[in-house]
Amino acid sequence: MTPINKILIVGAGFSGAVIARELADAGYAVTVIDSRDHVAGNCHTYRDDKTDIMVHKYGPHIFHTDNERVWQYITRFGEMMPYINRVKAVSGGQVYSLPINLHTINQFFGKTFTPSAAQSFIEEQADTSIDQPKTFEEQALRFVGKDLYQAFFKDYTIKQWGTEPSNLPASILKRLPVRFSYDDNYFNHKYQGMPKFGYSQIIVNILEHPIITLHLNSSFIKSMQTDYDHVIWSGPLDAYFDHSLGRLGYRTLDFKPFYGTGDMQGNAVINYCDNSEAFTRVTEHKHFSPWESHKKSICYTEYSRNCNAEDIPYYPIRLVDDKALLERYVDLAHKSNGVTFVGRLGTYRYLDMDVTIKEALETADALAEAFVSQQIPKVFYQYVI
Ligand SMILES: Cc1cc2nc3c(=O)[nH]c(=O)nc-3n(C[C@H](O)[C@H](O)[C@H](O)COP(=O)(O)OP(=O)(O)OC[C@H]3O[C@@H](n4cnc5c(N)ncnc54)[C@H](O)[C@@H]3O)c2cc1C
Description:
alpha/beta, protoporphyrinogen ix oxidase, domain 3, binds flavin-adenine dinucleotide
């Protein structure tokens, strides 16, 4: 294999930026392009000019991890402020706390259960005839029973995924545990925080390196490939192949901003669980920076729908048809030369930021090793299907 000298990274999100930095630190000159006019991909944050509030442009992003290497990495490039994500949910005209915890259970059923009494009660609610839950609906019925499922999951899931929960895999629900204590911290990880100056500033800092060149407003075109020894692709997998086999399914989000003064909803994120509202949640961005003080406020109402060709892809759907198509794209990818697919779009998986960074660090290690030993770099460094 010819020595690798020129590397192109498509995408300046966490995947592209971390790999660029690691390869640059290892001595490789890297060019990073992004079709958008900003860095940080879907984690992009900006200061709203009417309120001066830091806004999460593509939806609320809370950093959380158990991984020491990842925590060291992110705090090397940006100051993380203490932040605990506490989510509220509106259902049947009342406000509850999520994930379902002892307070939610007691409020919903009008009880004063102790933890063990609540656990026994929920076990009675659970549908134990479901031995091995396969679908989202079965998983919910098996673990929380019909009443909590209908109040908190059913309509919300239909709004979020555009399909009945009986069509979705059980694995989706595993992200939302039930707690038999009053702990309403949404995440269980050891580290949780919010970047003091936003995610985009962290990415700017990561990319600040003498041998990294960044071009924004620059979309990949096939002819670029000949100018580089290797391409690292964090855009959509099917887009690399011009969607030649069809489009992988995604959900996209529409955000409708509205303004006010003071504290408009009292919390960063409130979910709307009933189908009486078409939106899934409302985010009040000032609550992500509790160390700042702002008189005005900006909120985003969030709507979910199927992603069309011109939309921004958010959540990979990964239902049976998508997985079959994914397999065909993975086959095609394995026949390609000079490219490595990374990140949430390149590997068509939902990835939290910490997992994205972890995988990017590991991929960069593996690529650097392949370049040094003049081995052909792999097309994927993660298990994708
Ligand atoms: C609504 C939502 C909320 C989330 N909340 C959280 C959270 O609270 N906590 C958490 O840890 N994670 C969260 N995530 C996950 C987080 O967004 C991802 O982990 C992260 O964005 C993945 O980074 P990436 O670099 O792989 O992809 P991206 O951020 O999507 O970056 C890919 C980049 O590639 C660029 N690109 C694509 N195609 C081309 C092309 N042809 N030419 C040039 N550039 C191109 C895109 O413009 C984009 O900037 C959330 C995700 C969503 C959708």
